[in-house]
Amino acid sequence: MANDYREMWSGLGLNLEAHDGLMAVLSDAYQNIYLSQQNRPAGMGYFDFVISEVHGQRIVEILKDKIDGKTIVGTFCLYVPEELILAVDGVAIGLCAGAEVGSDEAEKYLPRNVCALIKAFLGFKLAGLCPYVESSDLIIGETTCDGKKKAYEILDDITHKVMVVEVPHTKSEEGKRLWRKEVQKIADKLTEVSGKAITLPRLREASKVVDEKRKALKRLSSLRAYDPAPISGLDALLINQVSFYDNPVRFTAKVIELCDELDQRVKSGKGIAPKGTPRILLSGSPMAIPNWKVHAIAEGSGAVVVGEESCVGERNFATLVEQGFSSVEEGLDLIADRYLTINCACFTPNEGRLQDVTNMTRTLHADGVIHYALQFCTPYMVEAYKVKKTTEKQGTPFLRIETDYSMEDFGQLKTRIEAFVELIKEKRTS
Asked: Omega into 349 within 30° of 0, i.e. cis?
């Protein structure tokens, strides 16, 4: 970062020495993983800039928004409707949870054998490393797993600004009624914190903004179906990660620009890897910045990742909100219904997710599925069994991985993924 943001970070209460170390590690990792890639689209320059200013210019923008009276809302999950935040003239921000930081401090509150994402979001706060948490006026958590909902109690004890909403674990009529009530609670809380009512014009405009972002990401996903792939899985993952904290209108415009470039690549047959490169679908736990490990290993092993059946991926943009609603109440119901189409592993039964894996494997022409679960992420670890059965039924090679944010298992994962890529190649020739 060219600018000196230390005064701003100090004002937010960050641990400057530790934060300097984190930024140095992030910069080195990005240089080695992303900027070393060959034949990248020119449109990725914008996203490189966003990462270079990940705790800089974007935080400057957010603090200016606060001065201008906007409410900053931090989130960890897709089940927090961005439409409602925008409808109160707020800013939705995905919070830090993708790196192994502050573990010693977090383990004073949490057991050691809790998933890396939970330990990370508490660790970032306790170590004074996340300016997004410090900038938030409200943090909205959710009950997608037992570990998160209990950790949110601790986070609220520390920050005094956490609201937790109940996500039903069945998609029954009772579950739908519960969820609609919870969405109304979110709307009421946002109105209370912001002092601004959700009106029909505001809700319509907010819904359109978010759906336009989803359409841009859907277009990017569809372009990854071509062979040769016009963009790496690493770069596509980065774009999906950035979607959670960039300005949504600007982000959408930049994704559309990039997709226009990718269209030209497809027409000219230009790819980031040779035609016929083994194609992998990654399925499972979410991957927050800077969790790039599995993609980096897979693509460094001679494959290309063509899709993510994940919250940081297809689940974020697969479905849209039905537009044209004529009242706030109708709009809230339609928004609630749309969010229940997300097939998180917290649901039981969860046939929708299995169908998503099948559909994505087919439409993205994936040769194999890697099921990725964070260690101790029980819903995804257990559901891997059914995903394996589904892929085997369609004759698609399957690899199950459980890992965390550390680099300790990098060599082991590389060996396993390289063998998996070779298996795909052998299957093609048999």
From this structure: yes
